[in-house]
């Protein structure tokens, strides 16, 4: 059985409990397959990136096979929300729906989109109708609006993101479909050395203060250039990068007054 999110954001949890760990989030108009049903909870698999987890059943809306097929066709003519937050207004009842960056809008045209027979209006300035080329200039135009977004485990919206939720969302705006977690994203693209890296490439890290020789990937960020990275660690911010890893001046103390390495560089991937 297929279902769709008609709320702005729906938490996907590790267990069938509101107190369980948030793994990721479904965004408005995102679809999933229901794998298992309990009285209050559904275990689902997201169609976008294959993530599985538990969702509060009342937050999902079922889709018939016919509706699902029609929706997939509608997404062939879609746009994507490019700003951290936008607002859509239903022409059926004038209700407002907040939409976060990365939300796909089916059958978009000239400030309107249609979802399951309902037409919504949205400010065209909030929307990208064609994926821009991933250049440094275009990247900076997008990511500047996400600076200082707070860190939230499993989050992928303007009120809270984790590191891979940030990279997945930004790359979606540029037309790239990334998997959800950092370790999964590191399996995509092509490995490149730092001296050949370009703006928009992803850099993957372990925590330098845990084991500087380890290769277990626990963090990801986006290269602005060969010496700077934007990533979500505490908040979305820009920090220094070199072949050793991320050097944070925020971590300065009496022992290391200029700062310290917080993440050990493992690999860089070009998409």
Number of helices: 4
Shape: globular
Oligomerization: single chain
Strand order of the largest sheet: 18-19-20-21-22-23
Q: Mean of residue pLDDT?
A: 95
Which structural class fits the helix and strand makeup?
A: mainly beta
Main sheet overview = 6 strands, antiparallel, barrel
SSE order:
EEEEEEEHEEEEEEEHEEHHEEEEEEE
Overall helicity: 10-25%
Q: Span from first to last CA? A: 33 Å
Q: Got a strand count?
A: 23
Computed Rg? 19 Å
Ranges where pLDDT stays below 50 over 5 or more residues in a row are none
The portion of residues forming beta strands comes to 35-45%
Features:
271 residues; mainly beta; 6-stranded antiparallel β-barrel; 5-stranded antiparallel beta sheet; 23 strands; 12% helix; globular
Describe the protein:
- The chain is mainly β and 271 residues long.
- Helices cover 12% and strands 41% of the residues.
- The chain contains 4 helices and 23 strands.
- The strands form 6 sheets. A 6-stranded antiparallel barrel has the order 18-19-20-21-22-23. It has a 5-stranded antiparallel sheet with strand order 6-5-4-1-7. Strands 10-9-13-12 form a 4-stranded antiparallel sheet, with no helix packed on it.
SSE layout:
Layout: E1 2-5, E2 9-13, E3 22-27, E4 31-37, E5 41-46, E6 52-56, E7 60-63, H1 65-74, E8 79-81, E9 85-90, E10 96-100, E11 104-105, E12 112-115, E13 118-122, E14 127-128, H2 136-143, E15 156-157, E16 160-161, H3 163-173, H4 182-185, E17 190-191, E18 202-207, E19 219-225, E20 228-233, E21 235-241, E22 245-248, E23 260-270
Antiparallel strand pairs: 1-4, 1-7, 2-3, 4-5, 5-6, 8-11, 8-14, 9-10, 9-13, 12-13, 15-16, 17-23, 18-19, 18-23, 19-20, 20-21, 21-22, 22-23
């Amino acid at each position: 059985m297929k279902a769709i999110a008609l709320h702005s954001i729906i938490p996907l949890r590790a267990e069938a409990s509101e107190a369980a760990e948030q793994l990721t989030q479904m965004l408005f108009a995102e679809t999933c397959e229901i794998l298992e049903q309990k009285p209050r909870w559904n275990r689902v698999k997201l169609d976008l990136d294959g993530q599985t987890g538990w969702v509060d059943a009342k937050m999902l809306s079922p889709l018939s096979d016919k509706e699902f097929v029609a929706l997939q066709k509608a997404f062939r003519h879609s746009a994507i929300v490019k700003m951290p937050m936008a607002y859509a207004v239903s022409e059926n009842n004038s209700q407002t729906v907040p939409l976060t960056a990365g939300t796909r809008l089916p059958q978009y045209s000239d400030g309107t989109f249609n979802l399951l027979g309902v037409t919504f209006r949205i400010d065209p300035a909030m929307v990208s109708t064609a994926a821009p080329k991933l250049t440094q200039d275009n990247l900076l135009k997008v990511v500047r609006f996400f600076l200082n977004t707070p860190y939230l485990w499993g989050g992928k919206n303007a009120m809270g993101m984790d590191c891979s939720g940030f990279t997945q969302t930004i790359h979606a705006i540029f037309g790239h479909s990334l998997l959800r977690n950092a370790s999964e994203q590191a399996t995509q693209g092509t490995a490149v050395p730092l001296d050949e890296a370009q703006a928009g490439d992803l850099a993957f890290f372990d925590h330098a203060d845990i084991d500087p020789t380890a290769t277990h990937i626990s963090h990801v960020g986006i290269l602005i250039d060969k010496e700077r990275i934007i990533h979500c660690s505490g908040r979305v911010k820009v920090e220094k990068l070199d072949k050793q890893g991320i050097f944070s001046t925020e971590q300065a103390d009496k022992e290391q007054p200029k700062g310290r390495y917080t993440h050990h560089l493992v690999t860089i991937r070009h998409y």
